[in-house]
Amino acid sequence: MTTAIHCLVRGQVQGVGYRAWCQGEAVTRGLSGWVRNRQSGDVETVLAGPSDIVNEMLAALWSGPAGASVSAVEGTPTEERPRGDFHVRPTV
């Protein structure tokens, strides 16, 4: 079963390579979607793929790269169905 989750990751997640880490982890898992910084200091991502792999990635978001300190991961289902490679989007 394929699913898509929209997530906001809060904490010390900018300036630590979180987007590049997220992209690498998602690509390794074969997920589609995107990640970007928000001006609020959060990181936003949409993860799409097999439910079990999306849930695995959702759990991994709590770790992040060295230097990250994640205080919250808020994930909600989304109707967005990204296709193709996982990519980094510009900051909003």
Can you tell me about this structure?
- This protein has two helices and five strands, in the order E-H-E-E-H-E-E.
- It is an alpha+beta fold.
- The chain has one domain (2-83): Alpha-Beta Plaits (2-Layer Sandwich), CATH 3.30.70.100.
- The protein is globular and about 35 Å long.
- The model has no long low-confidence stretch (mean pLDDT 96).
Helix content: 10-25%
Low-pLDDT runs: none
The succession of helices and strands, N to C, reads EHEEHEE
Strand content: 35-45%
The CATH first-level class comes to: Alpha Beta
Distance between the termini: 31 Å
Report the count of strand segments: 5
For the CA atoms, what is the radius of gyration? 12 Å
Mean pLDDT: 96
Enzyme class: hydrolase
GO molecular function: acylphosphatase activity
Pfam family, one: Acylphosphatase
Keywords: Hydrolase
List the helices and strands and how they pair.
Elements lengths: L1 E11 L5 H12 L2 E6 L5 E8 H10 L8 E9 L9 E2 L4
Parallel strand pairs: 2-5
Antiparallel strand pairs: 1-3, 1-4, 2-3
